[in-house]
From TrEMBL, chain A:
Annotated protein name in UniProt: Ras-related protein Rab7
GO terms, molecular function: GTP binding; GTPase activity
Cellular-component GO terms for this entry: endomembrane system; vacuolar membrane
Record membrane topology: Lipid-anchor
Subcellular location: Endomembrane system
Species name: Oryza meyeriana var. granulata
Biological process according to GO: protein transport
Keywords: GTP-binding, Lipoprotein, Membrane, Nucleotide-binding, Prenylation, Protein transport, Transport
The organism's place on the tree of life at top rank: Eukaryota
Family: Belongs to the small GTPase superfamily. Rab family.
NCBIfam families in the record: small_GTP
Xref: PROSITE patterns: RAB, RAS, RHO
From TrEMBL, chain B:
Source taxonomy: Eukaryota, Viridiplantae, Streptophyta, Embryophyta, Tracheophyta
Domain of life: Eukaryota
Coiled coil start-end: none
Matches recorded under PANTHER family: OS08G0547200 PROTEIN, TBC1 DOMAIN FAMILY MEMBER GTPASE-ACTIVATING PROTEIN
Name of protein: Rab-GAP TBC domain-containing protein
Region: Disordered, residue numbers: 1-27, 57-83
SMART domains the record matches: TBC
Compositionally biased tracts (Low complexity): 1-21
Domain Rab-GAP TBC: 115-274
Amino acid sequence: MSTSRRRTLLKVIVLGDSGVGKTSLMNQYVHKKFSQQYKATIGADFVTKEVLIEDRLVTLQIWDTAGQERFQSLGVAFYRGADCCVLVYDVNVNRSFDTLNTWHDEFLNQASPSDPKTFPFILLGNKIDVDGGKSRVVSEKKAMEWCASKGNIPYFETSAKEDRNVDSAFLSVAKLALEHERDQDIYFQTVVADPVPEVEQRSGCAC
Amino acid sequence: MKALRRSSTSSSSSASSSPRAPSSPPPWVHLRSLLVASSSSSLATSGNSAAVAASASFSPASYSPHSDRGGTKSPWSRRKRKRPLSCRHWNHLFSANGKLRDGGRKFLKKVRSGGVEPDIRAKVWPFLLGVYDLNSSEAERNVIKTNKRNDYEKLRLLEAYALYDPEIGYCQGMSDLLSPIIVVMEEDHEAFWCFVGFMRKARHNFRLDEVGIRRQLKIVSQIIKRKDSHLYRHLQKLQAEDCFFVYRMVVVLFRRELTFEQTLCLWEVMWADQAAIRAGIGRSTWAKIRLHAPPTDDLLLYAIAASVLQRRKLIIERYSSMDEILRECNSMAGQLDVWKLLDDAHDLVVNLHDKI
């Protein structure tokens, strides 16, 4: 039994360098498909998926963004109202790991959530399948250390190609986002005590 | 320069070897050094002196197939060395559909013990280096070959463009603009200069400061505002009047929303407008013609606005967030009639060109 009749929409933003596999991870999670062919994301797009968490049906709205710096400042419009930010890097490319700090800080900077200190992030190290793991250059330990330094961000190692850990990673995303959304709800209920019956209205607060 | 050509086979490069004086030397100089690094094998046959110097040891002309192999018996091994893989043997390894028998086991065994005869190396190496899977059929390899050739051409031309226009360099989305040109223009150098012509205006879409994009989004917003205040007010209510939802259409000029053929139609009409303006064929000429719409540099933006206006009812009645409009715009692929779009765009130009 769901505790609330209201459908919950959770907004998730996926960020990371171009080519790390953001779109592929989403496609694998939502459509159970993987394409070898690379097609750069232009601007932003999103997919949705219904997830059952603790007997509650929530809709994950996962936003895919362009990974090249040139399409950044316009991303701001899409970051608004996010409930969780998924950072992705390629375990075979050092640079994509090094830029995580930038993505992390830029997100907080541009989305300016009301709770930057506790805003939920999650890190995915993708492409662990490549060359049977032999071409990997960023160790799990190094990634975990980074996560610890950012306030214990959950970390998953994934392969969008072979569908490894993708479901569990996004389930964790959904849980984090739901927690965050609840906290926000409590925060806003004290400000505007207005139980809106309409479904989509929740995102109406675009501050 | 020769190495830039579409085909690097020796037959086609010798057939069209008329020298062409480069009109702008600096980019070509860079290009040559780039190509020495990236494709020494094709340069080695081109007779380019720099390339020959750089890769003299690989030049087929100076290479004698049997001189350096040494005897069949290795001085370090007591075992008798086997002979290299011959052409006849190689052909025997394949089954009827062009697949290597037994997953390539016999093939690899042979090469591991004795190498490959020089005259079939070009055929064999792609298998050794993973370009072709050992289990691939001939049909599969042909597909891979075509795709790889296209990918390579794209890379080469984009790299050339990045050298030609270092301020813009390379950016995602450019290959969307280049790929139709490669398909239509047979010769690499012609494809390149057409792309340069295309990019004269489109390059602003890829500027680091994004002013080019912002300017265009603003114009789309203004067109909608002027044409349909009701829709515009609805967009304002959703905080979507900045028209971010058409971002992708602006950056890659409808390439992701239209089919290949439709894209070419739209672009041609749009280029004709721009060419008319460049040639100074202005308003007065067009006023007398049935169309009435004077040529504009921003026909694309009118077309984008038209595609949104075509969905005004849906947007006003059903959509209550910017997300939904973005979703609608991103899934227009296959839904658009390019000539209807252009008709609507021309109508907008007639009504609004002196107000925007």
